[in-house]
Amino acid sequence: MFSRTSFQGGIQYDSAVSHYANANTPNAFETIVYSDPRGAAFISAKNIHIYNAQGQQIKNFFLLWNAGKSIFDTISLTSYAYDAFGNRTLYQTQNKDTVTSQYINSLSINSVFNAANRETKRTTLKWRISGSIWDTLNQLDSVFNVQGKVITYLKRTWNSTTHKLSTVDSFIFTYNGSGQGVLQVIGYKWTLASGVYTNDTRTNNTLNALEQVVTGITEGWNAASSTWKQGGKHLYTYTPNGYIASDTIYTWDVSTSSYKLNSRILILIIVSVSLLFTMWRFGIIMHGKIIYPHILITKHLIRQELNRLQPILRMLPC
C-alpha cells in the first residue's frame, strides 16, 4: 500500500492503493483506490486484473464505487490476447451499458508479428454503433531487414467518405552494408485523386566509422520541375560514449545557392540541466553547492539519468 497527497484549492486530498489477490477468481488481483477528501475516507474505484497461466494479463475490469447502493459498478472492460511467443496481438476496450448490462465494443488494436517477434502490422479500429461494425481508423505496416531495421513503413487512415483505407504516408529506408546505419530515407505521399504515390521528402545521411550520422541533408520534392530541392542540413558531433554532443543546422539560401548557418544546438545542455535537476532533487546540490559528498551515490544518479535520456538522444539524428 502506498499513499499519495495532492493539494487543490488549499484542501488536502489523500489516496491509498491496495493490491490483493481475489480469492474467488484464480490468477486475479484487485486494486482498490481509497480517497480521503476533507478527512472522510471512502472507496472510490477498483480494478480487477485477470491473468492466464503464463502470467499475462488477459482482462482488466474497471469499477466505480456506487455510494447509494454500496456496491461497485463495472464501467469498462479491457481485454488482451497474445501469440505463442508472448507478443500482445489484441488490445480491446468495451464499455458496460448501465441499462442492459451488456458490454459495448469501443476500441480495438490488432497486431501481427513476424518470426523475429517484430510488429509488422498494427490496425486500430473503432466500433460504429449505428452499423454494429468495426471501422478501421488507421493501419501501420512495416517491413524489416535481416538486422531488424525498418526498410518500409506504410501508414493508412480511414476515409469516412469512401469507407476505405487511404494511404497517407510511406517511407523507404536504405541502409549501409551492415544493415545498421541509415543512409537514406525517402517519404512518399498518396494522392487520392490520381491514386498514386508522389515523392515528398528525402534525407541523405553520411555516416562515420561507428555508423553514426554525421551529416544529414533533407530535400523536398518540387512537382512543377520534377526535381528534388535543397532543404536543410544537420552536422552532428558525438561524445566518446555515443551521445549527441551538438547539432549544427544549416538552411539552403536560394539567392546564393549555398547553405547558410542557422543555429547550433548543444545537446549536452539538455543533459547537464537534467543532471543538475536530478542532483538538486536528491539533495546533492543546494544553493549552488554540493552538500552530499558521497561520490558513489552521485555517480550512480548521474549514470541513472544518462540511461533515462539515452533513448531520446539516440533518436535525435533521425
Concise description?
The chain is mainly beta and 318 residues long. The chain is 11% helix and 60% strand. A hairpin with a 5-residue loop joins strand 6 and strand 7.
What layout of secondary structure does this protein have?
Elements: E1 2-8, E2 11-21, E3 28-37, E4 42-51, E5 57-66, E6 71-82, E7 88-96, E8 103-113, E9 119-128, E10 133-144, E11 150-159, E12 164-175, E13 182-191, E14 196-207, E15 213-222, E16 227-238, E17 244-253, E18 258-265, H1 267-281, E19 285-286, E20 289-290, H2 295-315
Antiparallel strand pairs: 1-2, 2-3, 3-4, 4-5, 5-6, 6-7, 7-8, 8-9, 9-10, 10-11, 11-12, 12-13, 13-14, 14-15, 15-16, 16-17, 17-18, 19-20
Overview of this protein structure:
With 318 residues, this protein is mainly β. Among the domains are: 1-82, Beta Barrel (Lipocalin); 274-318, no CATH class. Helix content is 11%, strand content 60%. The strands form two sheets. The chain has an 18-stranded antiparallel beta sheet, with no helix packed on it. The protein has a two-stranded antiparallel sheet with strand order 19-20. Strand 11 (150-159) and strand 12 form a beta hairpin. Helix 1 (267-281) runs antiparallel to helix 2. The two termini are 42 Å apart. Mean pLDDT is 78; it is low at 1-15, 279-299 and 312-318.
